[in-house]
Each structure stands twice: as C-alpha cells, then as structure tokens.
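Below is one such record:
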Amino acid sequence: MEYFTNQNDLNKLDSVSPNNPDGSEKNNTKINVLDVFVTSTLKINKLVETCVTGANRFVAYAIFIAIFSAMISFAVPSASRITSFKGFSNLFSNVLPNIEVKDGALYADKKFEMKLSTTTILINTDKNEFTRDDFEKSGVYIAFGKRKFKMVSFAGTKENSMYNELYSFDIGTYLWDGFTNQDLMKMIPAFYILLVVSVLGVAAFNALKYLFVAGIFTVLFRTATTLIKIPMTLKDTFHLCFYAQTISIILTSMNRAVDYILFPTLLSIIGLFVTGIVIKKALQPHMPDIEDLIDRFNRDR
C-alpha cells in the first residue's frame, strides 16, 4: 500500500523519503538553520518533513541553538551588567574597592558585591577566606578573602543545603605582591577574551545537555516514528527529538537571563513536558488510521 500525506506539497511517499531510488541520501539544500528554527517553534506540524529532508542541517542547527542559548542566558546579561558599570575601565578604576596585594595577602578598603549573570563576585578582606556559613542564597560565587579566593556553588533550602568548592587558591598563587587596580586595567583585553571563552564553554555544555536529552526522547518515541506514514530512520528520530527542544531551550534560557523567575528544576520539568508535547504534535499529522495499521500488521506477518 502506498501512503499519502495531507500536505499539498508532499504528494508522494518518495518525495520525502530519506533515500533516493538509487540509494543515495537525499538532502534539501533549500532548508537552512532559520527554517529549522521557525519550523521547530511555529510550524511544528511540518517538523517531521524537515527532519527527513534537512538532515544535512542538523550539525549547523545544534551549534546555532547552543550558541543562541548561551547568548541569551549568559552573554547578554553579562554585557548588560558590564555596560551598567560603563565598561571594565570604569569598573576597575571607580567601582571596585582600592585593592593591593602585600606579602601574598589581599587588602581592600571596602567590601564589594557584584552580580554578573548567574555568578556573584564577592570581596571581603576582613576574613581570610569565605566558608559555607557565608552563603545564604543559591548561586555561583567567586569570593575573594584576604588569603584565599574561591569559586563556590551553593544551593540552599530550608531543609538542607549543598556546598561545593569548584576551586580554591591562595591569593599569592595568581596575584603578585604590589598588584593593584592599575594592573587590572592592563588586563582588560584578557577579560574580554575570558568572556568569549566563557560563552563558548556555556554553549558546549548546553549542546551536550541537549544531545543527551534528545537521546532519551529518541528511545521513548522510536516506536511511534516507525508507525508514521513517512519513513524515519533512527537518525531522523534523533533529529526530531533535538529540534523539539527548541521551545524549552528558549524558555529555560530566558528564565536564567532574568535571574530565575521560576525555580530551575521546576522549569526543567516543564520543559520536558513541552518537548514531549511538541514531538507528539509533530507526529500527529502523519499517523496512520487504524485500518492502515491493521493492513501493515497483516503484511508483516
């Protein structure tokens, strides 16, 4: 039996088949990354066709959506915060306390706290180092004490808390004696490079996370994709499950950009449900009716 879709521009099965009659892979060069993005968010009923005919766009889209999410959640908030201080130059010369390193110890003329995206920078040289008791709100902290600086991840609730020191170093390890605000001024180009590297690091982490989630959904929905009218390979199914995360990615990235209006775990759960709904909606127009399923079952016996 030959199956037909309900799309006017896709009248025959072989027009959307992943392989040409001669066995070669079929790629639709007219599909670009923007097309995939629009289809994944606004034209979900056409997402299956996009996965089959635009397989050669998957890597480009994975890179795009990873960088896109990193820009929304990290780069834009960080740039906005730096701009509010009128750039690094004004930040180091007028906003930060006057600092100086003597005998491997940091001295500052006042306490300082600055939130940069989801990371908070703290300076308090009245104490040798920051400890678990110094943190009350969940977040990531870069904390400078008199003798040590640390990067800390802290998640606290009324019942319990989780504290993890990502790194901890002596001040004298990286800041030499005589180090002052003027030395920070000389390091401004390095800070811009660090921001770019940080954005790429966030993008790489996001890409791995999205690929992992796509793999889980591929296992869950593979049976359904074998039943639809358009033949989908396992790779096509994986692409579908990756593209279907787009709306969830936008929501979670925006939530992080505005400093978590919704609790991250709650939004992650909501995102999983949204992704599942998108996949179901994408498959729905191509599901055969019960007679077709019975006929296929009888032919396969």
